Amino acid sequence: MLILAIDTSAVASAALVSDDAPEGVLANFSTEDTRSHAEVLAPGIDAMLADAGVTGADIDAIVTGVGPGPFTGLRSGIATARTLSYVWGKPLHGLMSLDAMALEVAESTAAVPEFLVATDARRKEVYWARYTLADGQLPRLVDGPHVGFAADLPGLPAYGAGAGLYEDVLRADPDFSSEQPDALFLGQFALARLAAGEQLLDSTPLYLRESDAQVPGPRKRAL
Amino acid sequence: MNRSQPLVLGIESSCDETGVGIVRGTALLSNTVSSSMEEHVRFGGVIPEIASRAHLDAFVPTLQEALAEAGVKLGDVDAIAVTSGPGLAGALMVGVCAAKALAVATGKPLYAINHLVAHVGVGLLQRDDGGQHPALPDNQGALPDNLGALLVSGGHTEILRIRNITDDVELLGSTIDDAAGEAYDKVARLLGLGYPGGPAIDKLARTGNAKAIRFPRGLTQPKYMGTADEPGPHRYDWSFSGLKTAVARCVEQFEARGEEVPVADIAAAFQEAVVDVITSKAVLACRENGITELLLGGGVAANSRLRQLTEQRCSAAGIRLTVPPLELCTDNGAMVAALGAQLVMAGVDASGIGFAPDSSMPVTTVSA
Ligand SMILES: [Zn+2]
User: Fold this and answer.
1) Which residues of B touch A16 (CB under 8 A)?
2) How far apart (Å, rounded) are the C-alpha atoms in residues B367 and B352?
3) Using CA atoms, how far apart are residues A119 and A108, in angstroms rounded to an integer?
């Protein structure tokens, strides 16, 4: 099974993962910056497909990170994934973006049985979720995703750029203090869960915050 | 690529309409629009984040419907065109990402298009059966010489000169603060008339006396206007924020005196102030720039008084006015496709997929 995975919940990234490829990865790319997704995502995917010699017809499914993440960036990936899925006629699945980093933690030597993943939610808040990890298993989401102040999070080891930003109040793992969700791990997680016969999410974005728009109150009368 | 009668798919997402339109050369095949207007009603104005969320969910269904209505397949399309600016940054981003993904998935060339110039592109459209659209001028698939465009909507208010729609467009004047449609929305809220403000004020104004109150016409003082030979800094520009404040003061004064607020008169006087200053400056810009053909575009083209006064003043000045059918005046994908087809026919290179949406794209950039 060949999956095209896309995540723009923080940086823009995409990957081709396959259970036939060595280490499961055919190709991948990611950007460092979190604000130019509309510019760089499509060229990145186009070049990645060309380099890997893969066309839309070869792909079995598309997986997109559904956040949480800053809204405009998050939509870039979902809009791209939905359109590719429609044109190529391939199934589209969603996966919570923090799961990607949970898998990266699980595959590292830093893994612990219970931990947090946190990314930057801007406005002095983080997006976060709590995972448990048993030997030889995929990480299991037990709480979240949420958005909130770092100081209000449970006192567990915390991984990701959101933890790194608030290392004064979180038990941030230094090796992960600038890590962001990456389509590479997102795709691998999706592949493992689909292989285990599990259902994934649909592509509905997890905004976690309302639009911020205020319904205007009645106008103050002069008298 | 077929450069003589190209099949072009256009995508629009610069404000609160998700539009996909398809044209073949100058023939209009389909024009599908999904609007999030209803979702903005309780806020009294377009909320960019809500519009962006709606674009994301509306895009694929709108695309499917436009293809079905035109009876074409994506594989048949010669080129894709998308609004890349000006507009709301987050909203533009959705259409641009979707358009780029379409280009990646189909291998078709992509044109990044200026929304304002696209409004002028509808002046070139003809009906699919080869006949003229009843409300479209006898355009023979070409734009007239000495062409200007007056665009009035909730997002913009501009007067343009078009020497060549694919590479020579000039901004003669624009609003320096609120768009005219935005002023309508704000005043409608002041008067408790709901959203969108344009139709509500237009309707109520018919029962009011426009001469009962006189509201200011922004940027009309000599220091802004100057003379034809020595134009002032805002000779063809508009400003509506002072007008909005004047309406608020007026309402407050009636309330302070404990009098009933004459809502219909205020609506009529406000509308007269907007329409008077828009049309007088537009006609002035036309006369002083040799423009003899004027195209009216944007959602406020639906306003009955704006149409009436524009017609009256254009005809007095010897300017031929064209008002396209309303569904082509408001934001839509067909106008983007129409301009895209012009670029293809003119042999202009595609934009590729590396461009960035530009929320303040100037009209001198017809395509990126
Ligand atoms: Zn417009």
Assistant:
1) none
2) 11
3) 18
What are the chain A neighbours of B90 within 8 Å (beta carbons)? Answer: 71-72, 75
Q: Would you say how long chain A is, in residues?
A: 223
Rounded Cα distance between A139 and A124, Å, is 27
DSSP, collapsed to helix, strand or coil, labels residue B78 as coil
Each residue's pLDDT tens digit, A50-71 = 999 999 999 999 999 999 999 9
Q: Supply the DSSP string of B188-220, one letter for each residue.
A: HHHTT--SSHHHHHHHHHTTS-TTSS----TT-
How many angstroms does the Cα of residue B50 sit away from the middle of ligand 1? 18
Cross-chain Cβ contact B43/A212 below 8 Å: no
- What is the full DSSP assignment across A43-91? HHHHHHHHHHT--GGG--EEEEE--SS-HHHHHHHHHHHHHHHHHHT--
Residues of chain A in contact with residue B94, where contact means CB-CB under 8 angstroms, are 75, 79
Cβ neighbours of B104 in A, within 8 Å? 42, 45-46, 49, 84
Residue B236's nearest CA partner among B319, B329, B311, B170 is B170
CB-CB contact of B123 with B139 (8 Å):
yes
Tell me if B56 and A75 make a contact (CB, 8 A cut-off).
Answer: yes
Separation CA A100–CA B182 (nearest Å): 43
* A121: helix, strand or coil: coil
A21 contact partners, CB below 8 Å, separation of at least 6: none
CA angle B182, B97, A5 (to 5 degrees): 140
Is any Cβ of chain B less than 8 angstroms from the Cβ of A55?
no
CA dihedral B302, B280, B137, B341 (to 10 degrees): -80
Contact flag B97-A219 (C-beta cutoff 8 Å): no
What integer pLDDT is reported at residue B132 of this predicted model? 46
CB contact under 8 A, B43 and A216: yes
Cβ–Cβ contact B356 with A under 8 A: yes
pLDDT tens, A70-129? 999 999 999 999 999 999 999 999 999 999 999 999 999 889 999 999 999 999 999 999
Question: What is the signed CA dihedral for A94, B53, B86, B237, rounded to 10 degrees?
Answer: -170
**pTM: predicted TM-score of the whole model, two decimal places:** 0.95
CA B10 – CA B31 distance, rounded (Å): 9
ipTM: 0.96
In sign, the C-alpha dihedral spanning B182, B186, B191, B197 is positive
Give the phi and the psi of residue B331 in degrees, each rounded to 5: -60, 135
The neighbouring-strand residues paired with A159 are A117
